[in-house]
Design goal:
Blueprint (H helix, E strand, L loop, with lengths): L1 E8 L2 E8 L4 H9 L17 E4 L2 E4 L12 E3 L12 H8 L9 H14 L5 H7 L11 H15 L5
Parallel strand pairs: 1-5
Antiparallel strand pairs: 1-2, 3-4, 3-5
Helix pairs in contact: 2-5
């Protein structure tokens, strides 16, 4: 079976027919061409596929596209504006929060969700928000520093 899907994706309305069993990850990458959302474990274990649905972090490899009907979905591609990095992207850049980069989009989206809900998180709150995202290259120290730096950039009004 297929159904009509209408969602707001990165600020733009998207309409189309999707099979009932199409995963959001596959919809984003294959149907829409947004490849920033990464396929990692394909089982909800790594967090590389994290996107925001109505500002909440969601694993797109476990979410059916049809569930997003009428909702707002944001991917990592939504963050930069007019050629400028968002605060969280700038934080990861300046504090070297990315190593190989594969997990980075998922970590950035989980961090974005945290900062939207809590503009001044503690280290323990950052760790809790990122607990479902696995990075094989770091000890998370620089990632936590990146999120803290992004919070400061936002507070200073330097970046959204």
């Amino acid at each position: 079976m297929a159904r009509l899907l209408s969602l707001t994706l990165n600020g733009k309305t998207h309409l189309g027919a999707v099979p009932d069993n199409l995963l959001l990850l596959d919809y984003l990458r294959e149907r829409v061409g947004l490849t920033g959302t990464k396929t990692g474990c394909d089982g909800g274990e790594c967090g590389a596929c994290t996107v925001l649905i109505d500002d909440k972090p969601v694993l797109s490899c476990l979410t059916l596209a049809a569930v997003c009907d009428g909702r707002r979905v944001d991917t990592v591609e939504s963050l930069a504006a007019n050629g400028r990095l968002s605060a969280i992207q700038q934080g990861f850049h300046e504090k070297l929060g990315a190593q190989c980069g594969y997990c980075t989009p998922g970590l950035i989206m989980a961090s974005e969700a945290l900062l939207r809900a809590n503009p001044d998180p503690s280290e323990s709150e950052i760790r809790a928000a990122l607990a479902s995202n696995i990075c094989r290259c770091t000890g998370y120290v620089k990632i936590i520093a990146a999120v803290r730096h992004a919070a400061k950039l936002r507070a200073a009004g330097e970046r959204r």
